[in-house]
Design brief:
Blueprint (H helix, E strand, L loop, with lengths): L11 H8 L5 H7 L2 H15 L6 H33 L13
């Protein structure tokens, strides 16, 4: 019989992975982050590739590549920030019953 995986506390990364959905470009512009807007724009450009030819197609490929680089840089920065935050220890303050 297979061994069950050990239980662990869910992290903020787990929550993002579960709740993250692909926003449409309209949704991203209305309420998303800059990263979500870039991802939605890239997704739209990829869909648009089927309808263009010639120089416009080459330009679209270039824009997709530029967006991909910027998205990768932003995601790397977020991952680094999360790693730095995870390494910090926060000490609890002493409990003060009189404060209640």
């Amino acid at each position: 019989m297979a061994k069950k995986p050990a239980l662990r506390v869910a992290t903020a990364d787990d929550a993002k992975r579960i709740t993250k959905k692909n926003l449409t470009l309209d949704e991203a512009v209305a309420s998303g982050t800059y990263l979500e807007i870039l991802v939605a724009q890239r997704r739209q450009m990829i869909k648009d590739l089927a309808d263009v030819n010639g120089p416009a197609k080459a330009a679209l490929h270039r824009q997709i590549a530029l967006h991909s680089k910027e998205i990768a840089a932003l995601e790397a920065a977020e991952a680094e920030e999360r790693a730095e935050d995870a390494g910090r220890e926060v000490e609890d303050e002493a409990f003060d019953a009189e404060a209640l």
